[in-house]
Design a protein that fits this description.
- A hairpin with a 5-residue loop joins strand 1 and strand 2.
- This protein is mostly helical and 445 residues long.
- Helix 2 crosses helix 6, helix 7 packs antiparallel against helix 9 and helix 7 runs parallel beside helix 10.
- The strands form two sheets. The protein has a two-stranded antiparallel sheet with strand order 1-2.
- The C terminus is likely disordered.
- It is built from 15 helices and four strands.
- The protein starts with 13 loop residues before the first helix and ends in a 15-residue tail after the last helix.
């Protein structure tokens, strides 16, 4: 997965999260159906915006051919569960665009001799893949009336601009090919949805989205490019990070203005992705000055942390025991005629083993596997993606745990706190789209 749009599940309502996953799975399956299993590696978060735009523009009495939802079979990435996924011309256009852009990206890596692409056998195989993907994407795009040559021409022009860029030239000269390519893809969604009046504003939104994506990618890679000596548009044009941030924030504002002129049947998901997630992408790259950190999860007694899973208390330490007692000393005696005291601070009966290596009283003994069985269970759960996506029993300890994606969410607690901030200071731009309905911040700040 790659892209600047990475919505967190805490910032989406249940309906929008289901819609987001439907388009993501729909893009992946469209790549598989039209171009083969290897093409699924071109699945990316930004490409599915094309599918989202087509569906959002479809009127009740007019839908793109074959559009809608279908039930997909079990998939390892969904924990072997079925799901409702997007289908139709929007998904096919998104797949064609994603495949063409992935081909361009691989070709750039080969030309720059990045990493393993510096090896001749790998580079030769990568060139063969890009040629095949260029043909495949052009064929499937022509079915929905889109010409991918605009994307490939933009990529070729990009290289020429980088080689011929004058010293001190504007960084916007470098972003122009990307802007042209994304503008064409965004505008064609209006053609598929039968909304010719939306072509101009969507082209403008796409142009600014392409500028934003190019600048954020350059800012993210600036340090690595400087260390490796690779070409970077910000360094080549002498653009400092403050100016790059200003251009990015102007692009986000321009996307919001353009979306106001787009006629949409359901604008909630489009608004979240293009009006809010673009802004969060800028904050992720350049930082967010003046934002107060979330208290939940970082102060005692507020919420579990990564080292304190839900439902499990941290291990006691004799020197850090809040009761001030030593868990290894002999318990105080009590009257035999009375019931022994209960609760977490109650003394442990003398016949119960205590000390390191013993299971605490009242806790079930851990169901631990040996090394061989644990490795076998780990391999099986890894192949079926249970470790990544599903709640599961730990392959060694047997403890109930959430999947890696849930434990290491795409947003930190800082970002969870602003999950519904669009209902506050940005209420004017969100008043009619419904993007805040049912959102779950996950924090109480």
């Amino acid at each position: 997965m790659f892209g600047i749009i990475r919505p967190c599940r805490h910032r989406l309502s249940e309906r929008l999260q289901a819609s987001w996953m439907a388009h993501l799975c729909g893009l992946c399956l469209a790549l598989r159906d039209d171009h083969g299993q290897l093409a699924r590696t071109a699945t990316n978060y930004d490409g599915l915006i094309i599918s989202v735009l087509v569906e959002a523009q479809a009127a009740a009495g007019h839908t793109a051919a074959g559009a809608g939802r279908r039930t997909a079979g079990p998939c390892p990435l969904r924990g072997m569960r079925t799901a409702s996924v997007a289908r139709g011309e929007g998904a096919r256009l998104a797949a064609a665009v994603s495949l063409a852009l992935a081909s361009v990206k691989i070709r750039d890596h080969v030309e720059d001799e990045d990493g393993v692409f510096a090896r001749r056998p790998v580079a030769a195989g990568a060139r063969a893949v890009t040629r095949r993907w260029d043909r495949k994407s052009a064929g499937s795009a022509s079915v929905v009336g889109f010409d991918t040559s605009v994307l490939l021409d933009a990529a070729a022009r990009q290289g020429e601009l980088e080689r011929e860029l004058p010293a001190g030239g504007s960084v916007l000269l470098v972003t122009e090919p990307t802007e042209t390519a994304t503008a064409a893809a965004f505008a064609h969604t209006a053609v598929l949805a039968g909304r010719p009046g939306n072509e101009a504003p969507l082209a403008e939104a796409g142009r600014l989205f392409g500028r934003l994506a190019h600048l954020l990618d350059a800012a993210e890679d600036q340090e690595a490019d400087a260390a490796s000596g690779a070409w970077n548009p910000l360094a080549a044009t002498g653009t400092d990070r403050a100016e790059a941030e200003r251009l990015c924030r102007d692009a986000v504002h321009g996307i919001r203005l353009a979306l106001r002129d787009v006629e949409l049947t359901d604008r909630a998901l489009v608004h979240v992705l293009l009006a809010h997630e673009t802004e969060r992408a800028v904050e992720r790259v350049f930082g967010r000055p003046g934002h107060a950190a979330c208290r939940v999860g970082h102060e005692p007694g507020t919420a579990p942390t990564d080292h304190q899973p839900h439902g499990h208390a941290p291990h006691a330490h004799p020197q850090l025991d809040p009761t001030g007692s030593n868990p290894y000393q002999s318990p105080p005696r009590h009257d035999p005629g009375q019931a022994p005291p209960q609760g977490p601070g109650a003394p442990v009966p003398p016949w119960v083993p205590q000390g390191p290596g013993f299971t605490p009283p009242g806790a079930p003994p851990p169901n631990r596997r040996n090394l061989l069985a644990g490795c076998a269970a780990w391999a099986l759960m890894g192949c079926t993606c249970q470790l990544l996506c599903c709640e599961h029993n730990h392959p060694f300890s047997g403890e109930r745990r959430e999947g890696f994606c849930a434990r290491n969410d795409c947003c930190s607690c800082d970002n969870c706190c602003d999950g519904c901030e669009c209902c506050g200071e940005n209420a004017q731009c969100c008043s009619d789209c419904g993007c805040c309905d049912g959102c779950d911040c996950g924090c109480d700040c």
